[in-house]
Each structure stands twice: as C-alpha cells, then as structure tokens.
Amino acid sequence: MITVAHEALIDLIVDPAGHVDPRLGGAGFNVTRAVARLGQPVAFLGRLSGDRFGQLIRADLDQHGVKIAVEAPSAAPTTLAMVDLDPAGVPSYHFYLDGTSAAAVGPGDAVLPEGTTAVHAGSLCLIMEPVGTSTEHMMVNAPDGVTVMLDPNCRPGAISSRQAYLDRLMRIMRRADVVKTSTEDLAYLFPGQDAGNAAAELLAGGPACVVVTDGAAAVRAFAGGRQIQADVPAAPVVDTVGAGDAFGGAFLTWWIGNGLGRAALSDPEKVRAATQAAIHGAVVTTTRRGAEPPWAYELAGHDGWRWLPPAEPPAQVS
C-alpha cells in the first residue's frame, strides 16, 4: 500500500474572467486520487474537517476506495487555496492555512498504516504545525523496507521562515529515496543555480534519485550517476492544476505496481521508464479543468503502463 501524507483542501479556481470554480484539491488529495485511479491500494494520512467541505472530501476519497488513516474529523474549518489562473492556464496560489484542518495532525496521528510499502509526502504539510513536525518525524523514521518519496512543492508565500523550512527539507532528504521537484522549486531552494547543479546538491543530501519537471519542457531525472531526459508530448492544455501531483502519484504507483523498491532507484533505465510513464499521467491531467488525474484505462495503452487493466472508472466516482 502507498500512504500519502499531505493536505486536502478546497481549491477556489479563479479564471481570467473572474469566474470562481470550487474544487476538491490539495497536493495530498490529488496524489491520493492519482494512486487510487491507477489501481494501487492507498491510504490518505491527513486531517479532514467535519465541516461540509471536509465531508465532501471524505466522501470522494471513500468512493475511490481510499483508506482514511486519521479517522476523527477536526473541528477546525477546511483549508482553502485561491488558485488564480493566467490566460495560459498556469496557476498561482494564495492559501488560508491558520487554524484550519490540514494542520491538525499530531505525533500520535502521523503513523504509517500497516502494510505501507511506500510513502509520499511534502507540500503544505511541511509548513503548518503540528503536522509539519509530525510528518517530518514519520518520514525520517520510516522503516527500511518503505520507499520514501518527497515532493517539496514549495509555496514561498506560505513559508514564514525560509531557513527553518530548508533545514526541515534537508533532514528529510537524508532518509528520502526519491525527490520529485520542479524548476520553480529549485529556484526557491537554490537561488541563482541552474537546475542541474541544484539537483546535484539534492542528490548529495541522500536520495538515490531526483526528478525535475519543467512544465512542457523535457523532464530530467538523475539516478545511478546519470542524467536522464524524457520529452513531454504536446497536448491541448486546459490548465496545469494538479499536474505535478499526478506526475508524482503516477511515478510512485508505476514503481510499486511493477514490484520495485528502494534499491532499484539506482537503475537509470528503470527510472527512465517510470519517468516516461509518469509524464503520460501528468499530460492527461492538463487536458481537463482542475486536478483530475487519469484513470487506469487512460494510460493502459501507453508505453510503460501496459500492465494496467483496461477497466473503465466506476460510474459513481466523478
């Protein structure tokens, strides 16, 4: 089972004309649904509110067959994100975090469920408290048999102390096996450095593999002493909301679904295959509004996903 330790929230998507479209979202929610739709058992480890928004998020995860690792709802309101889309569909984010549900994960809640073989974490849950400290402790103490994937998904506007944030990332990096990042993340983490040098610094911190996305440009992966490049196919882009989350969820799902573990991340050819497979997942997501990751049947015909059953999605799940 893949466990996703992240936030779930409501995205208030505002288009250039000023229309507001509320969507269920958050990095953790998006990654969890990506894993579930691609047929792997998945647990969501994050606090949901008892309010109406929280009930809607819980119902959607239930419909996707997701195990809710932190059962008790929070009395705090659901976390919110305002997503401002530019004319090209590229989002900028503004968050409402203080006193909201996603922060309310204490040390006793941040426990990997039994059967976890991989954990994916990052984004806002490394910024808020007490969830930040709880998640960090869980990740750095993950059992040897668990593959740890970190996606910083940096949100500079939500980070109160850059140095404290960097220190936390570096502590997690020493246990992380694979880091999924973007050129925007690297620009924040390593100002003035090119992406290749920044990725090398991340590798020096401990992980076996670093994957760098760059919008529609080629994805670069660094593993086994090699740099791997995988092209992103052209597609009609509606928006890019959740594309990075779909990529990370697809990469880890492909990895675990093919029976691979921590040691295989030093194999450049396996990393290349996982990267190309994950690209397909991200591209599908960009072709529709909001963070709607692909279903198994949408990827089954692509190279690298031929092991997926060509099944249609359940009719009751949106």
Explain this structure.
This protein is α/β, with parallel strands linked by helices. Helices cover 31% and strands 21% of the residues. It has nine helices and 13 strands. The strands form two sheets. A nine-stranded mixed beta sheet has the order 5-4-1-8-9-10-11-12-13, with helices on both faces. A four-stranded mixed beta sheet has the order 3-2-6-7. α2 (52-63) links the parallel β4 and β5. α7 (243-257) crosses α8 (268-286). It is globular, with a radius of gyration of 18 Å. The two termini are 23 Å apart. The model has no long low-confidence stretch (mean pLDDT 92).
List keywords for this structure.
318 residues, 9 helices, 4-stranded mixed beta sheet, 9-stranded mixed beta sheet, alpha/beta, single chain, 31% helix
User: How would you describe the shape?
Assistant: globular
Structural class: alpha/beta
What is the count of helical runs? Answer: 9
Strand content: 15-25%
Helix content: 25-40%
* Total beta-strand segments: 13
Q: Which blocks of ≥5 consecutive residues have pLDDT under 50?
A: none
Multimerization status: single chain
Helix and strand pattern: EEEHEHEEEEHEHEHHEEEHHH
- Mean pLDDT equals 92
Spatial strand order of the main sheet? 5-4-1-8-9-10-11-12-13
The main β sheet shows up as: 9 strands, mixed
**Cα separation of the termini:** 23 Å
The Rg value, from CA coordinates, equals: 18 Å
